[in-house]
Amino acid sequence: MKKLDRRDFLKTSSLAGIGLLGANNTWSLTTLEPIHDTPGADYPYRGWEEVYRREYEHDQVGFSAHCVNCHGNCAFKILAKDGIVIREEQLAQYPQIAPDIPDTNPRGCQKGAINSQAMYEPDRIRYPMKRVGERGEGKWQRISWDQATGEIADKIIDLYEQFGPGCLATHTGTGTVSNGKLAAGMRFAAFLGGIQEDALTDVGDGQAGQYLAFGDNMQNATSDAWFDADYLLLSFLNVNATRIPDAHYVWEARYNGARVVTTSPDYNPTAIHADRWLNVLPGADPFLYMAMVHTILEENLVDRDFVREQTDLVLLVRDDNGKLLRASDLQEGGAEDVFYFWDEKSGAAVTAPGSMGSEVKNLALGNFKPALEGSFSVGKIAVQPAFVHMRAEAMKFSPEATREKSGIHPDIVRDEARRFASANKAVVASGFASAKMLNGIYTQWAQCLMCALTGHVGERGGYWSPFSLWGFESTFFMTLIQPGKMPRLECGGLGEFVHGQKIIEARAHYDNDKLKQRAGFDVEEMQHMIEESIHSGQMPVYEGLKGAILQADNKFTRNKGPHYRERMLEHFSELFVNVNVRMDSTAIYADYVLPAAGHYEGWDMRTTPLHRFGNLFTAPVKPIGEAKPEWELYVLLTKKIQERAIARGISSYQDGPFTRDLHTIHDDYTMGGKLMTAKEQVRFLVENNPQFQGQSFDEAVDKGFVTMWESPSPESAKVTPDKPVKAWRAQVEDKTPYPTLSGRITFYCDHDWYQQLGSSVPTARDNAGPAASKYPYTFYTPHTRWGIHSTWRANKYMMRLQRGEPNVYISAAMAAAKGIEDGGQVRVFNGLGEFYAQAKVVPTVRDNQVMMEHAWEPYQMRDRKGLNTVVATLIQPLELVGNWGHLKFDFYKWNPNQLSNESGVDIERADQAQEA
Ligand code: SF4
Fold it and tell me: Is residue 825 classed as helix, strand or coil in its secondary structure?
């Protein structure tokens, strides 16, 4: 054997630095040609390389992404051998849409990249199973699909016979959000008349402040729209940890010269790379943004022409009662939804175009020049523009006055407000955690005001959350395609609050006087508004639940309070079916579990708000055990319901305006037997949804994706082949009215409750926080880096990256004060309950903060007491309004959020714990 001398070694090493050493050749990285006769060719023993080569040996290839609630939607190539997936690779074949914008390749994250192993772990559900012990005891009997669907079908009919339709929740949760899987469950709910909660507000993702301002929180931007911004404010958005496939656009924009500013109470992986980290105090965000609004107004950084044309700040407000001046105030029988501005040129009140009641559906002002300031009389009615009210409120929140609240120095607030205003394109990229705060609606409304005052809307940026209807259009298309068939759509966060009787924990945890002082209402006032909103029909919540068929909805992990699970199990007293890929903390308690196919095991398709490619899932392998794609699972279940209904002589139930035809439900669901398989479902979606404009299914299957080049959705963005999608271009460029009461971006709401809560214009309120409880520390649960919510949360590879067990982040000062050691067990507690976890002592959190990445499964924790055991939640009353213009119940858009970051806790060493 020839030994390599030092000179040979260095030569080989330097070549390896620019190329890849193969068995016989070295491959140049720059020319992609083999380089012959290199020292590598003399390397004596290459047999070990075969070990690694064999890892790639496969006999099947297919495409997939992951249908979890990540919005990544990253195309993967899947390699399988003997029916077992051995590997996934990022596909990286999306085309570039414009020469000056980086393409979106490659997409992926560490969670998706381990699915080939996670899919075979013990928590997979492989067969239909029936509970044989007590609920939650873990005793199951494997049964056949025939038995499972037969028993469930009979039980559904029993329930309908006894209680009528409407007693079943048939909810598809956020565990699987691919179009095929989601549409399968929602279409089943549509025919059965089952209750489908709003899965967006269920998890506290509804951007209420954005909806209030723009009339739609589902009009946003693709992530490549971040790239040409020159100012990016990342608010509640930790892109490096939780939006991994899209984060590169932020950093490419920064490389291009953009300023990147992040706000978060903890020094997170995104803050590290930002130009400035605004370490706002927990829950104080509205004060920071109102101070920035203050600066924009004080220093006259306002784009007045934009404000005049596009916002309701020109509308006249009555001095006597604070209500908007309406046509009904000026003439008998006048419209309630026609408004006025004061024209400076003619010195008279003029009907504002574009409102819901206006015949003019265009915002163009022509020769009018609406006043932003001044006092006027319209007949005998004294009025002022809404701008005056907005300004007066903003003047209360100077950077100096808010410093103590926000923790940010006034010089920094002013500096950032000036930079934001002077940017050509400024973006507020808002994460979902914003919506999970009691005062999130205030944060978002103030941020939208910053954008509108400075003209940052449409091509010039704006407030964008990572969500769009265009990512879900295929789901709704397939669900609602049958005229006259609808699920019972229910409020998400509010439904969970009411069914779970969370008012009990709210009353126990919060001090009413302190809460009122901080949030503007107390628990009893909130409860009164909840009842009024529901009973007056503003927000739908259905009573009389007897059972549930839940699909990928890990409610018992997500929901708050120590007794939610047992209360819901009472609601599911007659039947609890769980359709799931894995045995999560909710499936454990079911009567029946039905195994669903995993990401790589069934035909499916997925679109996402954040890019324009719809990924095909081409089922590279067969489902594990007897699992089935959701579509085929419901095909089977509806077949059995139909058979049993006919056998029992049952035909239609009248259900309000709908008929529920159990005797034809299978024929209806499958479109007369045309769509029997998941592949047929996906073909139907690709070929029929207008979003894809007739692209060929077979071509899509060949390359793994379809493209939405010129999409009718979202209308506001005018989607073209060569530009990133940006919301509200149609409004700014074509003067199309916004879908709001006034047809304008809304910053004045004269609803009685908004007036009562002192919130007719953007303002700031505290969150509830520990200060409204008896406990000293903020308990804050941001999105985890090591799972997509609870999916992959217990995966062994992910666990190895995060200490192997549930852990809470605390500061060194807190650890010292409490005698807690890094790695030691702690008890986190308050009057509601307790949980145990490992202490992770870090320099990145505040001394008064207990931070825990969210979505640990309760079954991973002692006595199945999950992290939400100590969380009391509230409902934001402003989100309960359902009878004011665009503020009406709207699925995935407007109904109250479930909140998660409000409770106060204490912490102690586990070995010193006093049991609760
Ligand atoms: Fe992409 Fe989501 Fe899969 Fe991660 S889990 S690779 S973000 S699709």
Answer: strand
Residue type for position 49: E
Query: How much is the pLDDT for 34?
Result: 58
The 10s digit of each residue's pLDDT in 336-389 is 999 999 999 999 999 999 999 999 999 999 999 999 999 999 999 999 999 999
Going by pLDDT thresholds of 50, 70 and 90, the confidence category of residue 37 is low
Instruction: Give the model confidence (pLDDT) of 560-598 as tens digits.
Output: 999 999 999 999 999 999 999 999 999 999 999 999 999
Sign of CA dihedral 759, 761, 764, 770: positive
Cα distances (Å, whole numbers) of residue 643 to 462, 549, 632, 634, 910: 54, 19, 17, 14, 56
Count CB neighbours of 375 within 10 A.
12
699 contacts: CB under 8 Å, gap ≥ 6? none
Sign of dihedral through CA atoms 777, 783, 787, 791? positive
Angle between helices 179-192 and 678-688 (to 10 degrees): 100
State how far the Cα of 150 lies from the Cα of 640, in Å rounded to an integer: 6
Q: Find the 228 Cα to ligand 1 centroid distance in Å.
A: 24
CB count within 10 Å of CB 199 equals 23
Q: Is 111 in the pocket of ligand 1 (CB under 6 A)?
A: yes
Strand segments, DSSP code E, in 457-534 are 461-464, 488-490
β-bridge mates for residue 890, sequence order: 894
594 strand-pairing partners: 579
Evaluate: CB of 78 within 6 angstroms of ligand 1.
no
Residue-wise pLDDT for 480-492, tens only, equals 777 788 999 999 9
CB contact at 8 A, 888 and 539: no
Tokens representing 701 are 């299957």
CB atoms inside a 10 Å sphere around CB 238: 21
Would the pTM of this model clear 0.85, i.e. be above it?
yes
A 10 A CB-CB count for 113 gives 17
pLDDT value of position 699: 94
Binned at pLDDT 50, 70 and 90, residue 21 comes out as very low
| CA 799 – CA 805 distance, rounded (Å) | 7
Ligand 1 neighbour 107 (Cβ under 6 A): yes
788 lines ligand 1 (CB under 6 A): yes
Rounded to a whole number of angstroms, the CA Rg of the chain reads 29
Mean pLDDT of the chain: 93
Those residues whose C-beta lies under 8 Å from the C-beta of residue 150, and which sit 6 or more positions away, are 640, 644
Cα(248) to centroid of ligand 1, in Å? 15
CA of 73 to the centre of ligand 1 (A): 6
